Amino acid sequence: MNVTVTSLRPVWREVLAASYRALENSVAGVRDGEWDNATPCAEWTVTQVIQHAAGDQLAYAKMLGVGDGPAYDPFTPSGAVDGTAAELVGDAVERTGAAWAAVPDDSESVPTPLPHGELPTPVAAVMCALDAAVHAWDIAIATGRPSPLDDELAGHLLAAAREIVEPLRQWGAYGPVVEAVGGPSATPVVDDLLRYLGRVPR
């Protein structure tokens, strides 16, 4: 068992829960007139990021044996939601949360929708959490709200990201690493995570 798996095994459920709260809170904070705002995800609006984030969660749930996955391609979000965005995300988080709840604590590995396929359970879970958390940040920033991330959560997410993200850059899932500029930050680990994922901390 490698260092990353060992460090994440005791905390992966808490990391998932915190990331899901961040995503739901960011979506709940979107006001009328902000759904078409530009986001840090190139060419996607707030609504499209929400659709993408919900679809990714449903894809994880399907791989874990819950549901049929998203009814649309998360990488070509339409920008139009049936019902409300909060309902879309709430349903996705509920389904995926139930799927992870059924995974035993001593499970060694699980299937994922990532090109890597099956991954060690703690890494797979934290990568699922990473997807929710980083899109929570995208939505918050696009709508003028504070970052939903803190250094503790970001540290766990960064540990998994450094194991998995590099091969994903070629498919456009994450941009190139952004060089650090400026003075000290109040949340240096969050900033490191965002830069590693191709985002400019704000």
Molecular structure report:
- It comes from Streptosporangium jomthongense.
- This is TIGR03086 family metal-binding protein.
- InterPro entries: CHP03086, DinB/YfiT-like, Maleyloyr_isom, MDMPI_metal-binding.
- It holds the Pfam family MDMPI_N.
- It is a single chain.
- This protein has one domain: dinb family like domain (Four Helix Bundle (Hemerythrin (Met), subunit A), Up-down Bundle).
- Helix 2 (12-28) runs parallel beside helix 5 (121-142), helix 3 packs parallel to helix 4 and helix 3 runs antiparallel to helix 5 (121-142).
- The radius of gyration is 16 Å and the shape is globular.
- The mean pLDDT is 93.
- The protein has helices at 3-8, 12-28, 46-63, 85-101, 121-142, 151-164, 188-196, and strands at 109-110, 119-120.
- It has 202 residues and is mostly helical.
Features:
7 helices; mainly alpha; single chain; 202 residues; two-stranded antiparallel ribbon; DinB/YfiT-like; 51% helix; TIGR03086 family metal-binding protein; Maleyloyr_isom; Four Helix Bundle (Hemerythrin (Met), subunit A); globular; 2 strands; 2% strand
Topology, pairings included?
Elements (H helix, E strand, L loop, with lengths): L2 H6 L3 H17 L17 H18 L21 H17 L7 E2 L8 E2 H22 L8 H14 L23 H9 L6
Antiparallel strand pairs: 1-2
Helix pairs in contact: 2-4, 2-5, 3-4, 3-5, 5-6, 6-7
InterPro entries: CHP03086, DinB/YfiT-like, Maleyloyr_isom, MDMPI_metal-binding
Protein name: TIGR03086 family metal-binding protein
Pfam family, one: MDMPI_N
